[in-house]
């Protein structure tokens, strides 16, 4: 029974994760049964492909820089200083994470467009006289939204590194006469490096592979959009394979580097106590800190505010704020055929995939934490890799592998959608069960045996109750992430009756009349769901929710 | 046969032999100590008794019954874990009652028994609290209560006081003794703290490197240790190498670097044998006698009721003397003293 489940986990991950990736590799390198670089030559000979790669790279690097500049100082502020309202403010920094950047993009169009609120406001205030083109080609808009969405990841990762950071390491340096700069360069930064690198590489990959935002801004010269477009003629044009291979290559390199950096730090474990010394932040400095934090929060909540405003505005043209408000678009969401289909589909797909995740996540967490089965390390790697391998890669692989089979997404993508949702979220579940198992000292189970309880009773009354909060917390998050899952939904769902919410939002937003309003109303509901699930799962586990965004 | 017998048990982890032919017999109603430095195999022995480990060879008997292959749940052996292992999702009451619940005891029986055990362990006021909200000493009591409620044949305690501070440790020590008296439960207590073992134990077995070094009552182990390890593990001891020069009437004369010494001889000593002569620093008398020795005091440390003097003998051996504060006027760093050790306080070790 145990063995069979173990083998099933392997088979599942190999068939639905390794095999599609392998297929992409073989398709990219094998032409007519022989090894060949022809596909890469022809792809790289194409001007648009070269430009897309360059743009994507630029975008990734710029977003890493901007999230570093915002997230790192913020983490230091919260870890090292004491000021009123700190806990509330810390919680608010989760808000940017609850809106997918592409939904935010739809709302931001209202603010940033040529006669959007920002230009109108600036013109009214007399700062500018002609409307400024904020979105331009769309690149700037994408950059802004990715930054606002992703800097909390940097903040959370550096925060958790700082919380595990023994301040006496710094004090020892000061004690020996090290200056602030020297101490930061020689002590603090090297100790934070693994956490920083892991966060930066995840941010880089997410920015590189986000599909929804550039689609909303209609910016085509990015790797993700090119891959998306290449799927339509996947059987005749091999360009997509070259681009997907490029993404896999970068992802794997960063993943391996990050893993090595983390494994190399001997100080990650065995830490007994950390004395956190928070300094008071007083006077001018405190005002400055509030101003900076306030500005950052305001900026990062702009997309949310614009989505909410759009969803309840009756008309919003040429005015800073909507001229009239209404709730009719929320009615439309539940009455319109397409939006209703999307909601039903997403709820169903997410429920099933969450169920799969909970079962597999618990099993794999158990195998990794509590058994010595052969091949455990490989299973660990297989299950964590989807964290790094972007959704568009896996979906692209499914499309190319399962075309013209019973699983062909063009006929019915439901099974593949469930599987791709599950595989994408499985790492969260495995991680949270694994750490629950690890925190559960085996002597707790032994204590139960020693008073005469059977294996089953011990599992039911001791093991499961102690592990399940982590499991359910992960499950709640996996569910809401799946409901708002963008890239696989956009790629795999081809026919309208199979559309999940994300694709419905995208499709509806393009309609001229009430499209954006309905899309935003649906987006607000999605945001509320994700926000609620964060809250629920943070109540379930005393552990901070930020753990789920910790990489490595 | 005692209430619990371990017979010829050996256990290896890979190359490392952790237990080497270990045998112990625990009698009913006693507190039996397994004492040894960390890494001596005492925890492994404990886990074999509880059934969490299977020995490579040898047997474990509970009374007459061979329980070597029995699952931990079916052994009727209670256990107090070093880290307490309290279930954090259950209240104190639930933690304690669990052992009866899993045995499907009738509900009113569970109620009355749990209440009584909480009474004995002075936990009644905390019955509805969760373990993380208790102090270290209270958690310790819950661990005890949980282990004794099912009235196990034997109760094992794995370094139960090691997580408590010094004062609380003293308190819990007498608490454990009281609970043992009240319940009459047989205890096997594992520790590396010889004070704990000496003050609490009816009998002690000293382990080192996977082997039993000696088993006996505390007084016997301290005053008649059978080897150098036991002697030095239980307290300070001075050791002089020597050779048996003569044997007569239960007295042996030993030729040492500090002169010829007379010691009470055990059975296995023969003439001409290389031996070690040991004596405790507190067993010295400042007088001339049968075993007079001289030494020069190099330093003095004050311990409140006693002084410890570090000395050098004329032949250059470093030894320690311990004297009560009242006798301290004889001692001054740099001075020479003469002392005597009575023959019954000189201990002989045949093997080095």
Structure explained in plain terms:
The complex is a heterodimer of chains A (552) and B (352). Chain A has 552 residues and is mainly α. Chain A has helices at residues 2-29, 38-45, 47-80, 86-92, 95-98, 101-112, 117-124, 139-163, 167-175, 180-209, 212-216, 223-230, 239-264, 283-312, 328-335, 337-370, 376-388, 391-402, 414-439, 442-450, 455-483, 487-492, 501-509, 515-540, and strands at 30-31, 34-35, 81-82, 279-280, 313-315, 324-325. Chain A has a two-stranded antiparallel ribbon. Chain A has a two-stranded parallel ribbon with strand order 3-4. In chain A, strand 5 (313-315) and strand 6 (324-325) form a beta hairpin. In chain A, helix 6 packs across helix 24. Chain B has 2 domains: 4-228, P-loop containing nucleotide triphosphate hydrolases (Rossmann fold, 3-Layer(aba) Sandwich); 236-349, OB fold (Dihydrolipoamide Acetyltransferase, E2P) (Beta Barrel). Chain B contains 8 helices and 19 strands. In chain B, the strands form 4 sheets. In chain B, strands 6-7-8-3-9-10 form a 6-stranded mixed sheet, sandwiched between helices. Chain A binds chain B through residues 441, 443-444, 446-455, 457, 461-462, 465-466, and chain B through 50-52, 71-79, 81-83, 85-89, 98-99, 102-103, 146-147, 149-150.
Which percent band covers the strand fraction of chain A? under 5%
In round numbers, the mean pLDDT of chain B is 88
Shape field of chain A: globular
Q: Uncertain runs of chain A with pLDDT below 50, 5 residues or more?
A: 266-273, 548-552
Order of helices and strands of chain B: EEEHEEEHHHEHEHEEHHEEEEEEEEE
Number of strands of chain A: 6
Major β-sheet of chain A, in short?
2 strands, antiparallel
N- and C-termini, Cα separation of chain B:
33 Å
CATH architecture of the largest domain in chain B: 3-Layer(aba) Sandwich
**What strand order characterises the main sheet of chain B?**
6-7-8-3-9-10
Main sheet properties of chain B: 6 strands, mixed
**What is the strand content of chain B?**
25-35%
Quaternary organisation of the protein chains: heterodimer
What's the CATH class label of the largest domain in chain B?
A: Alpha Beta
| Full CATH superfamily name of the largest domain in chain B | P-loop containing nucleotide triphosphate hydrolases
